[in-house]
């Protein structure tokens, strides 16, 4: 029996598609703006587990489109979780560091208070609560700063800008863990398989690449690895105004993910090397 994956074109979904026994479905089969169609897809396929890798991920656009973001990130995962609970199968819901307010410097624990700063974070938090409320076996896996060779992400933006410019201003006061989509897909897959046999592992977990760094540090690593001559100037977030406010402290303690599932924090440098190789952008 297969693991049903919501998402086909996304960064994480594309990496799940190459893992064993996954069936990925896109918006033509289940549109997350239509929660009932998501529940129906689960009842149709009767999978062994569900991984939801689809989401409204445009952080700034969500500020003026919160109703849609909430339908996709909140209501749809809730309907999926209810369908899973009714069938007695586990669900893995991917969530985000943006559920945290981001004060202080201490890594967030999974049970720390959540206080999103923006609409995207609020919509993802609504999804977390709806999945928990459905009452079935589940893992909510919060990750951060997702990058891959596919789709839109910070690595691809830096490669583009770094080839065009001699220097770039990048925020240095937001600290978190860059995480490769391939590493997230592997973690979700392992967690889904473990939940099938051990539904008591249900809970909320963290998974991000190590070590924590700033976006500016990450940009420097990308330019170094790609052999691009582009100087990175550290700037505060206040010098890079955006519609949505981002958390400054996105550090997440991933200890319970290791203890419960045997999954360690991946080293982002190694994953970055692989991504640049896949893109043909290594120096
Ligand atoms: N990107 C990041 O930096 C981070 C992401 N996350 C979380 O990780 C998960 C995976 O993110 P990522 O792979 O980066 O996402 P992407 O932005 O790469 O892809 C989003 C996916 O969701 C699909 N989708 C969006 N709206 C709908 C809809 N209405 N109906 C059906 N499908 C829809 C998209 O399909 P289509 O192509 O048809 O639009 C696409 O497949 C998400 O839960 C996200 O919140 C967590 C932390 C950081
Ligand atoms: C392009 C650019 C960005 N930045 C900053 C803006 C921002 O604070 C940071 C990263 O930019 P992004 O557009 O990738 O940020 P963003 O889209 O907010 O990334 C987030 O996406 C959602 C989906 C998540 O869940 C989060 O974990 C996080 O990955 O870099 C600069 O400082 N200089 C630049 O030239
Ligand atoms: Mg983005």
From TrEMBL:
Key word Repeat present: no
Annotated cofactor note: Binds 1 Mg(2+) ion per monomer.
EC numbers: 1.1.1.133
Cofactor(s) named in the record: Mg(2+)
UniProt keyword list: NADP, Oxidoreductase
Pathway: Carbohydrate biosynthesis; dTDP-L-rhamnose biosynthesis
Sequence ranges assigned to domain RmlD-like substrate binding in this UniProt record: 1-279
Biological function: Catalyzes the reduction of dTDP-6-deoxy-L-lyxo-4-hexulose to yield dTDP-L-rhamnose.
Family stated for the protein in its record: Belongs to the dTDP-4-dehydrorhamnose reductase family.
Protein name: dTDP-4-dehydrorhamnose reductase
């Amino acid at each position: 029996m297969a693991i049903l994956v919501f998402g086909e074109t996304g960064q994480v979904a594309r990496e799940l598609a190459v893992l064993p026994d996954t069936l990925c479905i896109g918006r033509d089969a289940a549109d997350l703006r239509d929660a009932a169609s998501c529940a129906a897809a689960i009842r149709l396929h009767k999978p062994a587990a569900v991984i939801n890798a689809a989401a409204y991920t445009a952080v700034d656009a969500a500020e003026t489109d919160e109703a849609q973001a909430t339908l996709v990130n909140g209501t749809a995962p809730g309907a999926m979780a209810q369908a899973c609970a009714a069938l007695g199968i586990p669900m893995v819901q991917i969530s985000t560091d943006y559920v945290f307010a981001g004060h202080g410097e201490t890594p967030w624990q999974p049970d720390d208070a959540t206080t999103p700063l923006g609409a995207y974070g609020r919509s993802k938090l609504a999804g977390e609560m709806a999945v928990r409320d459905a009452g079935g076996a589940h893992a909510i896996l919060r990750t951060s700063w997702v990058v891959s060779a596919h789709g839109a992400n910070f690595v691809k933006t830096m490669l583009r800008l770094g080839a065009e410019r001699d220097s770039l201003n990048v925020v240095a006061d937001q600290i978190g863990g860059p995480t490769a989509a391939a590493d997230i897909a592997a973690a979700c897959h392992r967690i889904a398989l473990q939940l099938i046999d051990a539904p008591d592992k249900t809970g909320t977990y963290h998974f991000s690449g190590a070590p924590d760094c700033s976006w500016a540090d990450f940009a420097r690593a990308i330019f170094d690895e790609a052999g691009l001559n582009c100087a990175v100037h550290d700037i505060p977030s206040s010098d890079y105004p955006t519609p949505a406010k981002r958390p400054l402290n996105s550090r997440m303690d991933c200890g319970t993910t290791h203890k419960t599932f045997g999954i360690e924090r991946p080293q982002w440098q190694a994953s970055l090397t692989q991504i640049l190789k896949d893109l043909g952008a290594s120096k």
